[in-house]
Amino acid sequence: MRKKKILAFILSFLIVGNTIAISDVRANNLEVNAKSAILMEPLTGEILFEQNAHEALRPASITKVMTLLLLYESLESGKIKWDDVVTVSERAASMGGSQVFLAPQEQIDVGTLAKSIAVASGNDAAVAIAEYIAGSEEAFVVLMNQRAKELGMNNTHFENSSGLDADGHLTTAYDIALMSRELITRFPQVHELTTIWHDILVHKRKNGEENTDLTNTNKLLKWYEGTTGLKTGSTSKALYCLSGTAERNGLKLIGVVMAAPDYKIRFQEVMKLFNYGFANYEMVTGKAKGTVIGKVPVMKGMEEEVEVILEEELHFLLSKGEGDKKGQIQSQIKIPPMIQAPIEQNAKVGEIIYTLGDKEIGRSGLLVKKEIKKANLKHIIGALFQKWI
């Protein structure tokens, strides 16, 4: 009877799902005026549209998405701090292309360098942070390529941290979406920088202070509601590139175009991708990670039962018009009728599996909320006495 009550409680829990993409809808009639393009939903990784997305092309300054990713990972690990002061090298200060006009031996903190990369796409700032993290830009590039491999960016090879044209410096729209996804899902705080429209960088020179205007190169911030980032890029060989991010009504999108023929067209085509995504899809988010969904009996423990919680926050990506399918999602609980102590906190004791029709669409683990120690003799005698009474 106890087992039935526990399972009934769990089954009555609001259906939620692991990172799931149900829709098979594709943009059959959508064409993008660029050599390569892709539209991805970052929570699920679902590709909503692609056009020549796996051809290796020059990425220009979209390269800096990887530079920012390694910067944030270095901050997370404690290798560097936001207020660390970086001394700009001769080499970093000599970078051409887009720059924030750093001077040799200028001292500037990591946070300002990150802003200079994210907002103004400073090549000098990118090289300065690369040298600070890895000791040299060459060593940093090794880290970039290692990280790309880990992310499954199989058609990517970096030659520098800035995106300046170099033989063999290539990636794809799909690979750009992968690293953009990693950056914005692991470090959503990057949007605090990528949504800055204008700021001022104050250089402290020997002869006084000098100012450099930092104006965001991503015009989507002014042109498209819901824009959150991410990175532009252009050179004479790469033409015009953009990895854009936006969010509306809980749905996040990454839109990438490469080798667009014109400065404005890259923005227009990413807006076209966004319009398609927001018009045709919706995100349904379930209960948060750690939500209690029931209790399981404990044998030989200091407590008779323990709460079970969801391992992950769960998401469903649905195409609009599929709303009636929400009620067709079924769940199956796989959990033992009883667990034996001792058991550690967050130990996995089961899972919940979601299906739509005959197809499994996702699953989430079920974890023990707290540690349960094995009962000692005194506890066992006390429990027996209570039952006898």
What order do the helices and strands come in, and which of them pair?
Blueprint: H1 2-11, E1 20-21, E2 36-41, E3 46-51, H2 64-77, E4 85-87, H3 90-93, E5 107-109, H4 110-120, H5 123-134, H6 137-150, H7 173-186, H8 191-194, E6 198-205, E7 208-215, H9 220-223, E8 227-235, E9 239-248, E10 251-260, H10 263-280, E11 281-285, E12 292-299, E13 305-310, E14 315-319, E15 329-334, E16 339-340, E17 348-356, E18 359-368, H11 377-388
Parallel strand pairs: 1-14, 12-16
Antiparallel strand pairs: 2-3, 2-10, 4-5, 6-7, 8-9, 9-10, 11-14, 12-13, 13-18, 15-17, 17-18
Helix pairs in contact: 2-5, 2-7, 4-5, 5-6
Provide an overview of this structure.
This protein is an alpha+beta fold and 389 residues long. It has helices at residues 2-11, 64-77, 90-93, 110-120, 123-134, 137-150, 173-186, 191-194, 220-223, 263-280, 377-388; strands at residues 20-21, 36-41, 46-51, 85-87, 107-109, 198-205, 208-215, 227-235, 239-248, 251-260, 281-285, 292-299, 305-310, 315-319, 329-334, 339-340, 348-356, 359-368. It folds into 2 domains: 2-17 and 288-388, Peptidoglycan synthesis regulatory factor (PBP3), Domain 2 (Sandwich), CATH 2.60.410; 20-283, Beta-lactamase (3-Layer(aba) Sandwich), CATH 3.40.710. The model is unreliable at 1-26 (pLDDT under 50). Helix 4 runs antiparallel to helix 5 (123-134) and helix 5 packs across helix 6 (137-150). The protein has 11 helices and 18 strands. It starts with a helix and ends with a helix.
